[in-house]
């Protein structure tokens, strides 16, 4: 509103007196609202929001207390055109707007708890060791925290990114750091499931493996990539094709449901946790990692997969939304 009022003054739709009267009315209510908001944020545990709003409150108080005597308020009609004050007020309003926007996204990120609570026995079908940390971390951490069991089936040992043995051991270590014991992790090393961005795997073979593990583990939920496989990696897409085939041919336990991790466009992919608002609007099944959860996922990746933790994957773990947010779409049988 302040921006509009100041623009009206700049365009001569309002005179200086009208503009300053309008703006000064809101100075004290805004100050009080911020003073009340900060303890409210602290009370509900939104400490980061309280912290980032503290400088705003400090600045507003300073401005209010240092109004020169004789002026009508923070905005004074006789001074607003002097010494570039109008420009300064405009700039300040834009900074405040940006600040509010960031606060809003942090609030949306923090307001967690829309993950489905009835996922008790989850079978995660991935293509390579490290997929579990890089793409499915928020889900695994949340399911384990709620007392659910997670079983991981890794269809290849990722031999393109290192030796199969090392990567297999790394997967066990990373899963263990995420709360999934080694006994619940299976890694395949098979020439029909060769690792490679252009290697397509037989959907029937994948479907059979998925079906076997889903029955052995009595899985109630199956998770995998979607048709775009996050990065269009052919192995990820093959995992999806196999799960779809298993679901469509009723090869999975009757009570089970399958979900595909949604692939988002590149802008959303690298939007850290700022994608939380759009994710909430577009998906019903959403897992959002807290900052603690995120450090747990990064630690699992860095200590569990040292051979893979090179610079671009380090950046991915901090800037990709998959390290903070997972959203899913149901894979329908018929
Ligand atoms: Zn992968």
How would you describe this structure to a colleague?
Helices cover 52% and strands 11% of the residues. It has 15 helices and seven strands. The protein has helices at residues 2-10, 16-25, 27-43, 47-65, 85-110, 131-134, 137-145, 164-177, 203-216, 229-232, 234-248, 266-269, 276-282, 291-304, 311-319, and strands at 121-126, 149-154, 185-187, 221-225, 257-261, 285-288, 325-331. Strands 3-2-1-4-5-7-6 form a seven-stranded mixed sheet, with helices on both faces. Helix 7 (137-145) crosses helix 14 and helix 8 runs antiparallel to helix 14. The longest helix has 26 residues, at 85-110. It starts with a helix and ends with a strand. The model has no long low-confidence stretch (mean pLDDT 88). The structure holds zinc ion. Zinc ion is lined by residues 127-128, 131, 233, 236. The site of zinc ion has 5 residues, from loops.
How is this structure best summarized?
The protein has 334 residues and is of the alpha/beta class. It has helices spanning 2-10, 16-25, 27-43, 47-65, 85-110, 131-134, 137-145, 164-177, 203-216, 229-232, 234-248, 266-269, 276-282, 291-304, 311-319, and strands at 121-126, 149-154, 185-187, 221-225, 257-261, 285-288, 325-331.
């Amino acid at each position: 509103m302040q921006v509009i009022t100041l623009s009206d003054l700049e365009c001569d739709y309002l005179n200086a007196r009208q503009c300053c009267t309008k703006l000064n009315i809101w100075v004290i209510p805004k100050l009080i609202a911020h003073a009340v908001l900060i303890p409210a944020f602290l009370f509900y545990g939104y400490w980061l929001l309280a912290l980032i709003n503290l400088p705003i409150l400090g600045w507003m108080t300073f401005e209010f207390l240092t109004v020169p005597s004789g002026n009508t308020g923070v905005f004074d009609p006789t001074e607003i055109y002097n010494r570039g004050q109008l420009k300064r007020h405009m700039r300040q309003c834009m900074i405040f707007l940006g600040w509010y926007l960031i606060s809003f996204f942090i609030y949306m990120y923090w307001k967690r708890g829309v993950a489905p609570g009835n996922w008790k026995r989850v079978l995660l079908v991935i293509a390579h060791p490290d997929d579990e940390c890089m793409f499915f971390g928020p889900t695994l951490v949340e399911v384990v925290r709620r007392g659910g069991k997670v079983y991981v089936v890794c269809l290849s040992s990722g031999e393109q990114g290192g030796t199969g043995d090392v990567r297999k051991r790394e997967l066990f270590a990373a899963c263990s750091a995420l709360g999934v014991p080694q006994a619940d992790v299976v890694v395949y090393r098979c020439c029909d499931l060769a690792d490679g961005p252009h290697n397509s795997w037989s959907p029937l073979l994948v479907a059979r493996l998925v079906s076997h593990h889903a029955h052995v583990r009595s899985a109630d939920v199956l998770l995998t990539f979607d048709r775009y496989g996050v990065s269009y990696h052919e192995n990820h897409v093959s995992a999806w094709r196999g799960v779809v085939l298993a679901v469509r041919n009723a090869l999975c336990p009757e009570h089970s449901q399958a979900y595909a991790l949604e692939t988002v466009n590149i802008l959303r992919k690298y939007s850290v946790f700022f994608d939380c608002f759009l994710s909430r609007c577009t998906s019903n099944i959403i897992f959002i990692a807290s900052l603690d959860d995120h450090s747990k996922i990064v630690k699992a990746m860095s200590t569990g997969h040292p051979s893979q933790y090179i610079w671009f994957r380090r950046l991915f773990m901090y800037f990709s939304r998959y390290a903070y947010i997972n959203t899913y779409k149901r894979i329908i049988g018929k």
